[in-house]
Design a protein that fits this description.
The structure holds 2 protein chains of 2 kinds.
Chain A (H helix, E strand, L loop, with lengths): L1 H19 L3 H21 L3 H27 L12 H24 L24 H11 L1 H22 L6 H7 L6 H15 L1
Helix pairs in contact in A: 1-2, 2-3
Chain B lengths: L4 H21 L3 H26 L3 H31 L13
Helix pairs in contact in B: 1-2, 2-3
The chains are: A mainly alpha, B mainly alpha.
Chain lengths: ~200, ~100
């Protein structure tokens, strides 16, 4: 009970910090706190595997991607100082839309009847090998009844990789050839030339 | 005393609200992308809460798929940000209008 409220407080505070931070790096730090608190929240909901995935995928992969992009884009120039945010100008419509979203979500959620199944039927608690939400339990669900969505996941990731290479790769014609031509002559060419000459002399 | 699923869903709605404010009110594309990650996380929290309430694994599987889609979205979004910066040397979503009709 008290764990829930502490985690909820951390989640909301870090989310607010993420949204209101002045620099993207601060946002990344706030997001990291948010992800870790959410992983702990998953543990209170008996979703062990998802908690681990939250740490590995979000904190380990996505946030590192953000940090690298910030570091690379900000080096040398200052592209992120783009003047004041839109917040003062459109704060009222933004808040209106967001509050409507919040109200709709909350009303819908609270009017959905939920029959809470007691912990006794979940076959143990967090940490048991065969309990609800454990790795074995999740894996059985993922690889039997939900195998097709899992395979579609692989396709989505492949499309994302191809898209990223197409978008962010150097797509100008002749980029690769130009880069090869501009390569500085290293130590390899004189040696090769000397070897060829030696072969010619011998043969 | 256990926490009711409604509390989790209400928390999820609050997090979604904060994320929506971030997407609408910020003009830095990186912070907008991070706010979108907040939206994904709020949805995931609701999914996991309902999965626990009904003791049904499908919510966990769906949350897993959402994490995958979030990873793909972050990768492509950051690629677009990188490309935009390479072209125009400043990243402001208000001034990116190359595809405007």
């Amino acid at each position: 009970m008290i764990v829930f409220w502490i985690l909820a407080l951390v989640l909301i505070a870090s989310a607010v910090f993420t949204v209101t931070a002045q620099k993207p790096v601060y946002s990344v730090v706030g997001l990291l706190a948010n992800f870790i608190a959410l992983a702990a929240m998953y543990l209170t909901l008996q979703a062990e595997f998802l908690a681990v995935m939250q740490i590995v995928v979000y904190s380990g992969a996505i946030l590192i991607l953000f940090v690298f992009v910030i570091a690379l884009l900000s080096s040398g120039t200052r592209p992120f100082e783009v003047g004041p945010d839109k917040a003062p100008r459109i704060l009222i419509p933004a808040l209106a839309i967001a509050v409507l979203t919040l109200a709709g979500l909350t009303v819908t959620a609270l009017h959905t009847p939920i029959t809470v199944v007691s912990t006794a039927t979940t076959n143990g608690t967090t940490g048991d090998a065969n309990a609800f939400g454990s790795v074995a339990n999740f894996g059985a669900a993922l690889f039997t009844t939900n195998l097709l969505p899992f395979e579609v996941t692989a396709f989505i990731l492949m499309v994302a990789v191809i898209g990223v290479v197409l978008i962010a790769g150097d797509a100008t014609p002749g980029a690769v050839e130009g880069r090869r031509k501009k390569r500085r002559p290293g130590v390899r060419e004189p040696i090769v030339k000397a070897l060829r000459q030696a072969q010619d002399d011998n043969g | 005393m256990t926490v009711s699923p409604e509390s989790y869903v209400a928390l999820s709605a609050v997090l979604f609200f904060i994320g929506v404010v971030g997407v609408i009110a910020r003009r830095n594309p990186l912070i907008m992308l991070m706010s979108i990650e907040l939206l994904f996380n709020a949805a995931n929290l609701a999914l996991v809460a309902y999965a626990r309430a009904w003791v049904n694994n499908t919510g966990h599987v769906f949350a897993f798929l959402v994490i995958t889609v979030a990873a793909a979205e972050a990768a492509i979004g950051l690629a677009i940000v990188t490309m935009t910066f390479r072209r125009s040397a400043h990243v402001d979503v208000d001034e990116v209008s190359a595809l405007r009709g």
